Amino acid sequence: MVVFAGQGDARRSMSLLWRADGPREQGRRPGPGPRPGLSVDAIVTAAIAVADEDGMAALSMRAVGERLGRTAMALYTYVPGKSELLDLMYDAVHAELPARYEETGDWRAGLTAWARDRLEFHLRHPWVLQVSQARPVLGPHEYAGLDTLVRLLNTTGLEARLLRQLVGTLSHFVRGCAGTVAEARQAAAATGESDEEWWFARSALLGEVAPDFAERYPNLMAMETASTPQPQAPGEESVPYLEREARETFDVGLGVLLDGIGAAIAGTAKP
Questions:
Q1: Where are the alpha helices (DSSP H) in 33-154?
Q2: CB atoms within 10 A of CB 178
Q3: pLDDT class of 44 with cuts at 50, 70, 90
């Protein structure tokens, strides 16, 4: 399920994202009776909780209203609709990410910390991965996250054109790994079958349905034969197989990407 941001009224969405409509949109509007009034922030917080707990498919103005003890109609005074709400949610959760990292002069350590923080952020809010990157939200917290990454990359001394491409490369890499981990966590519950059960049931049949498998795919077989599975660390027994594999891929892939950045730095360094 892919969701495209920015489908609501452009001016209204941007005004809400940047709180350009004044105090009425930022604070709480007094409401009748003993219940406190609503606010944009309260609605966004409730919507994030719905998506975190039940997924993007469960998100609706009605579901958010019920969580706040209000009707869906009560929310429209503050947020025009679900499209604008999604933009606000997406930007708001990005406020969780660190705005700065310790400036030690070690660009590799900084980018490693950034990537690990991003991975865990996506796993806390897996619905964020369903929001397409083709059309960014253009909110303040999303921009702050980009600015943080650019600040870290600036310490490499690489030229701006390359840095721009590295922003995309690192962001897509982390999102891709996070998506695999998130799906691995969801697979067992969605199918009623663990990773180990799934793989054993199907891989055990390969010798029957494809007796010439090794001859047809010699390079793959050679790689699998040569790679020795790493023993599970204490506590990893409860982690799905696919999640362990995805996390190992993240660690190795990130190392290779950073090695590449290091090579680019060495290649452009002045004698």
A1: 40-54, 61-67, 72-75, 82-93, 107-124, 140-154
A2: 22
A3: very high
Q: Is 149 exposed, middle or buried (0-12, 13-18, 19+ CB in 10 A)?
A: buried
Last residue of a domain, one of 39, 67, 94: 94
Query: Domain containing 244: what range?
Result: 100-226+239-268
Name the residue with tokens 């197989």: 241
Token pair recorded at residue 187? 């697979």
> Do 99 and 144 meet the contact criterion of CB atoms below 8 Å apart?
yes
Angle at 263 between CA 257 and CA 265, to 5 degrees: 105
pLDDT category, 227, cuts 50, 70, 90?
confident
Are residues 52 and 117 located together in one domain of the fold?
A: no
* 163 and 68 inside one domain: no
- Surface-to-core class of residue 88, CB atoms within 10 Å of its CB (0-12 exposed, 13-18 middle, 19+ buried): buried
Tell me: pLDDT of 211 over 50: yes
Inside any domain, residue 87: yes
The tokens describing 148, both together, are: 């943080």
Given a contact cutoff of 8 angstroms between Cβ atoms, the answer to whether 268 and 161 are in contact is no
Indicate whether 70 and 131 sit together in one domain.
no
171 and 245, same structural domain?
yes
